Amino acid sequence: MTINKNIKIILNYFLGPLVFLFLFYSIYRQGQKEEDWEESWAQIKSAITGPQQWKLWFTFLLMFVNWGLEARKWQLSIQQLEKVSFLRAFKATLSGVAIASFTPNRIGEYLGRMLYIDEGKRLRSISLTIVCSMAQLLVTLLVGIFGVIYLKKYIEAQPISDKQTFQTGLSLVLSCVSFIVVCVAFFYFRISSMVRLLERLKWKKILEQVKVLDDVKLTILFRILSLSFARYVVFILQYHLLFSLFDVSLNWGETFAGVSSMFLIMAIIPSFTFLTDLGIRWETGIQVIHIFNPNEPGILAASLGVWVINLVIPALIGSLLILRVKLFRSS
Question: How far, in Å, CA of 124 to CA of 17, rounded?
Fold first, then answer.
């Protein structure tokens, strides 16, 4: 398809600023919609100069580790199609976060990373990016199962009046998620079977874009999965640091159970954009973490802190990086 020269110029030079302005405005509006956000934000600002401020700054530094691991995952997967440097992969990852911020179920993440792939290979890169997402989803679901088991055991030992209702609900969740894990694991480790299926169905146009999956080796899949697990550990550590900072006293087991259960719920519930999932994140955090600790303002402050550090700041950085990327090499 031939694209008009003027359209190319608009996309090349004005997409980045538009994304940045829209993102900044959306974050501001979303924050105003959430109840108690001002109190939570006040706690974060006071923590910046407090005696335990190192926990906040360390959480911030872990953000680079978090997205660095994701960039390495993408670099490994995309090497089947094109060799990219780690720095380029890191930029692509942050640009993906920026566009994903206002697209349904983060599909913009694939579009953002495509910008750093040579023209002619961009559509094929989507299937390889999906491999990274599948690996992270598999880890989230699998670890979430163990978190729910811990939560179930914890509730059994508590004097709760409707304990049986909790137990039944958690058992149902475990059964459903276990089935989903088996399905995701099957498709992940037999990713080439998708290519065989499309060949039998004779879907040639789609086959051209996903045939690159045939070259993904099992060792690469295991390496991507291990990096996904390492990234998950970083998430747990970030939450534990901020819970401690905002006086939500939890031991490591309780942090693991609470955060993994929260991530599991958020993975199952479809979201429009991560800019609109702050309310879901807060409500889920309150319902789950409140089982272990009743400090609701602290839970909200920790959730807001992780949201800003892990998603908002990377998205703003990514929107600025898009300024330096041309969607089309020639205008």
Answer: 27
